[in-house]
Design brief:
This protein is 36% helix and 19% strand. It is an alpha+beta fold and 248 residues long. The strands form 3 sheets. A 3-stranded antiparallel beta sheet has the order 1-4-3. Strand 3 and strand 4 form a beta hairpin.
């Protein structure tokens, strides 16, 4: 979905699409998934009893995302699958945060249910704006994913290869969460410290292994924030801005 900029997690094979009266757009390419096929066979055991052997094989099946399809009935099919949601008032943008984050060179796509950054295509994915509980939550999430994107090999070159549950993954999440706090302060949009504290609690094992990691992570988080939103230089004759507080 991220690689194609797709907004909906709806996929369909060519034959199924044809039956529904919808077709792939000209020039679109399918994605191949592995479809399991279950098999079983009855064999005679050593004692003459019947033994059932079961196994699975897999075959590639080409499917198309909803964004790759077209046809008169497509909108109705999508509407039938999308659960009804309570209408929410539009979120009023916060000017400075909107300007900084929309000006960040990593594009953000809107749609789906999850927020994430995809290093392979260098793209941020965010749910629709109306799904957030207010502007602060929207920009905090956007900022978190933007911090992740600073680690791309073309920028600060952090290790973004860690799988979920690994120490490498935990370290990068620490960078993103602390960076999100600092970015919120710099953009003057505030942050939910209780939320961040609860989030960071799950990564406390990394700090127990090596307390020095925290100092390294803080440094990396500050570098990331400086890349997205550099501090304005102090006017001549005025003292430089105080250092941002560190969340403990």
């Amino acid at each position: 979905m991220a690689m194609r900029g797709a907004e909906l997690p709806f996929w369909c094979g060519f034959a199924e699409a044809k039956k529904l009266g919808i077709f792939p757009k000209k020039g679109t390419r399918s994605v191949r998934i592995l479809r399991p096929q279950l098999h079983s066979r009855e064999e005679e055991g050593q004692g003459g009893e019947k033994v059932l052997h079961s196994w699975a094989s897999y075959r590639p099946v080409p499917v198309f995302n909803a964004c790759d399809l077209e046809g008169e009935g497509l909108a109705e099919l999508i509407a039938a699958r999308v659960p009804a949601t309570e209408a929410r008032p539009p979120i009023e943008p916060i000017a400075q945060a909107e300007q900084v984050l929309s000006g960040w060179p990593v594009p953000a796509s809107w749609g789906g249910e999850r927020a994430f950054y995809s290093p392979g295509v260098d793209r941020i994915q965010l749910p629709e704006r109306e799904s957030f509980h207010g502007a602060a939550a929207l920009y905090a999430t956007w900022g978190h994913e933007a911090i992740h994107s600073t680690g791309h090999e073309s920028r600060l070159k952090r290790d973004l290869s860690g799988a979920f549950g690994s120490s490498c993954y935990a370290r990068e999440e620490l960078v993103a969460e602390l960076g999100s706090v600092l970015l919120g302060q710099r953009l003057q949009i505030g942050c939910e410290l209780s939320h961040h504290a609860a989030y960071l609690q799950s990564w406390i094992s990394v700090l127990r292994e090596s307390p020095k990691v925290l100092l390294q992570v803080i440094s990396e988080a500050r570098q990331a924030v400086d890349l997205i939103c550099p501090e304005a230089p102090a006017p001549d004759g005025e003292p430089a801005a105080a250092a941002e507080p560190v969340v403990s």
